[in-house]
Amino acid sequence: MSESLRFLVVDDSRAVQAIVRRSLLSGDFRQAEIKFANDGEEALSLIEEWSPTLVLSDWHMPNMDGMRLLQTLRKHHPTQRFGFVTSEFERDKIDLAIEEGALFVVQKPFDQATLTAAVHKALKVSFIGRDDTVAVREEKLMVMTINTQGIGEVMDSTFGSGVFHVEPLPDVDVDTIDLPSAVGVFLHEGSKEIRGLALIDHAGILLLGGSLARKPFAELEKLMMANAVPPDIWAHAEKFLREQAARMFLASDRGHFQLMKSQIIKHRPEQLVGIMKRSSTRSDFELTRATLLPGRISLIAK
């Protein structure tokens, strides 16, 4: 299949163009032909003469940005497959992108597995006809907010601006899970399917629940050393999972997520470890507050 694939990468950064190209050619699309455009106007000219299989576009570019490019394509080339590779994280804009027909939104920084998975799903999309803008999708394309800014937005709105510092953690060894930890299982409200998982380590439970419960730092430090989670702190951590963590997941059909189940685990969760190892849409973040020990939250979209 790769021999006939043609990808158009649209981005005003030569460095990003190179990263996307390398990610595609190093993965499952080694024989694909790849061309580049620096903005939407250049992309339209190439699309007219070259007819790419898939357009992978940045959002923010000079002359013609990614959203205007998408809207123009929907009017004149309604069957053109299109996805965003962007630093845009605002939910309203991502919702608009999906509504306008983007097949995925991969957020920078991304890894090869995430981009490859999104492209594979986009290639499964078939269209009813050239004059029909309705796409028939073999499976729903789930989009998840997995960048530092997106997580940070949730944290700032919950605890106040700058209270927590959020940092992505690359290459986390999933075999090392601090116990006790907390697990949240999230349902996609439309399909009623389990589509999201969150794992919060012991320090993360205390940071999140303790901050909501307004516990003093000295008490939290003692609990971190004692490996304990008092019921009142867990109740607040569970509230965070129910009311805030669900906002970290986005669906292509603009549906919402809801917490189905949450619990503290005290033994190594072999099934969860397996899911984390296999998942191509998993991201790990470090949460820090002042001088307290850092916590960790891992997010997985299924």
Characterization of the model:
- Residues 127-148 have low confidence and may be disordered.
- The protein is elongated.
- The chain contains ten helices and 15 strands.
- Strands 9-14-15-11-10-13 form a six-stranded antiparallel beta sheet.
- It has helices at 14-26, 40-50, 66-76, 91-100, 112-123, 148-159, 202-212, 217-226, 231-243, 270-278; strands at residues 6-10, 33-37, 54-57, 81-86, 105-107, 126-129, 132-136, 142-144, 165-168, 181-188, 193-200, 249-251, 257-265, 282-288, 295-301.
- It has two domains: 2-139, Response regulator (Rossmann fold, 3-Layer(aba) Sandwich), CATH 3.40.50.2300; 144-301, Chemotaxis protein chec (3-Layer(aba) Sandwich).
- The protein has 302 residues and is an alpha/beta fold.
- β10 and β11 (193-200) form a beta hairpin.
Brief descriptors of the model:
302 residues, Rossmann fold, Chemotaxis protein chec, 2 domains, five-stranded parallel beta sheet, 10 helices, 27% strand, elongated
CATH architecture of the largest domain: 3-Layer(aba) Sandwich
Low-confidence stretches: 127-148
Q: What do the pLDDT scores average to?
A: 83
Give, in order, the helices and strands. EHEHEHEHEHEEEHEEEHHHEEHEE
Please state the CA-atom Rg, rounded to the nearest Å.
Answer: 21 Å
Category by helix and strand content: alpha/beta
End-to-end gap: 25 Å
Largest sheet: 6 strands, antiparallel
Q: What percentage of residues falls in helices of 4 or more residues?
A: 25-40%
Percent of residues in beta strands: 25-35%
CATH fold type of the largest domain: Chemotaxis protein chec
Number of helices: 10
Large-scale geometry:
elongated
Number of strands: 15
Q: Looking across the biggest beta sheet, what order are the strands in?
A: 9-14-15-11-10-13
At the first level of CATH, what is the class of the largest domain?
Answer: Alpha Beta
Give the count of structural domains. 2
